[in-house]
Structure formats: structure tokens, C-alpha cells
Amino acid sequence: MKSLPKQDQHNAAALQGQAYCRRLFSIEQELAGLPPEERYTQHLARSKPVINTAWAWAKQTGPLRNPRWAKPFII
Q1: Sign of the CA dihedral 7, 9, 49, 34?
Q2: pTM as predicted
């Protein structure tokens, strides 16, 4: 990201994708102290909307069109 001019960095696709990943990791950290069953339930409830939004973003912006970038999205 450092190679982009400052004014272009806030709209960069890489930063948007990174924001989704950071949100998912943040959810995991917040749930770390819960019992396994509760963590699983909370994980599904809180992560699913983020994952769905990230998936829609990826389909719309084009990372899935490049096989190298699509790998993390393939289940």
C-alpha cells in the first residue's frame, strides 16, 4: 500500500479486503475467553454477516477473477 499515493490509499481494494480480515480476527479475539459452545454460537452470529459482505465485495470488485487472489475465497 505504501506504493500508492496517500489520496488513493483509502479506496484501495487491498485495504478494503484487509479491513474485512481484521474485523474477523477482532471477533475471534473478543470471543477467545468464552466456553467452546458459546464461542461457536457467537462466532456464527457475528462472523457470518462480515463473511457475507466480504464475499459480495470480492465478487463485485473482481479479486475472484484472478486465480491467485481467488484462492483464499475458495472453500
Answers
A1: negative
A2: 0.68
Q: Which residues of 19-55 are buried (b: 16+ CB within 10 A; e: fewer)?
A: ebeebbeebeeebeeeeeeeeeeebeebbeebeeebe
Q: Are 27 and 43 in contact (CB under 8 A)?
A: yes
The position carrying cell 454477516 is: 49
pLDDT tens figures, 12-61: 777 788 889 999 999 999 999 999 999 999 999 999 999 999 888 887 87
DSSP 38-64: HHHHHHHHHHHHHHHHHHHHHHHHSGG
Report pLDDT digits (tens) over 32-41.
999 999 999 9
User: How far apart, in whole angstroms, are the C-alpha atoms of residue 10 and residue 71?
Assistant: 24
